[in-house]
Amino acid sequence: MKEGIKVNNSYTIKDLPLNERPREKLNKYGVSSLSNAELLAVIIRTGQGEDTAIDLAHRILSIDSSGIGFLSHATIEELKTVKGIGDCKAAQIQAAIELGKRISSSRDDKIKVDSPLVLVDLLMERMRYLKKEHFKIAILDTKNQIISIERISIGNLNASIVHPREVFNIAIKRSANSLILIHNHPSGDPTPSKEDINITNRLIEAGSIIGIKVLDHIIIGDNRYISFKQRNII
What we know:
Elements: H1 22-29, H2 36-44, H3 53-61, H4 76-79, H5 87-105, H6 116-127, E1 134-140, E2 146-154, H7 164-173, E3 178-184, H8 194-210, E4 213-220, E5 225-227
Parallel strand pairs: 3-4
Antiparallel strand pairs: 1-2, 1-3, 4-5
């Protein structure tokens, strides 16, 4: 190398061909044309040192074997384990993911639950990647329309965590006519356990005393679900 001549070994997204740059590709071909890493790179915007935003995106997606699914529950601290991702970039990613979740579950009109699929469609993407069991209830009015969906507990499903007191206390406050139990299986397999069935029966009994009927229990797995009512478990 001749003295005085500097070689720049770093490169940016601007060094890529125009039709390979995520933002330009998005503008020309539409957002659906972008890969997961390219979508993430648009959110990240800039790289770090010799790493482009796409390089950082690939590293984030390889943090966990679930790939893009990891982002649904990733913490700021987990995202920052990737060199080049600081507080700002991590916050941008979390904000974008949360917007997606809220859009997915938002509706202008009251939603009538006439099939387990109504709740599955609302909650699958929010719950399928969770690493712990989250127990929720869908509170319904006299027309089986959703008043609200409330989280009751987080942790391994057992009688000490899912207590009728907590379930029906909030159901009464929301003027529930009936409710549907929902929880996820982090393993991805929605097959109900003996404990799942025992807790369901316990809540059905409590509901019959109080006057709030438990219509169903839905277990969400990885893009799979089981409805106790459809399986004639209740």
